[in-house]
Description:
Blueprint: H1 6-19, H2 21-24, H3 32-38, H4 41-74, H5 88-101, H6 106-123
Amino acid sequence: MKTVAIEDLMIECILTFCENAAELGCPRNEDVDMWFRELPYDDQYKAVEKMMEIEERHRKMNEEEIEDKEDKEDKIVQMVEIELDLDEKVIDGLIEYALKNIKNDRNALINYAANKILKEIVETDGDCLNCLKED
């Protein structure tokens, strides 16, 4: 169980109260401390109950943010490049298969096009880019 210093708890409590004074019912033209002091005990009690609800709401939101972050971290895909020594016929077959079957996967098509362009640039030592140079 996490241990919290009472001072830290009090600081958080006071800050939460001040930050949420409007939601607790404090009018804009009044100082929070004076407004709260002048409330009858029953209204002070209601304001504190409301503050506890706000704290619970914030706690739940923080938990959801942490869960969302953990979910996103779980979905990270690590790309690993492998090199295969394949026969030209196999490579042609793979390319043909990809062209026929990659229809609705935009990212796969973009990756395919980018890889094909980069391969051509490397193979021609950049000569394929001469058409893009200005005269």
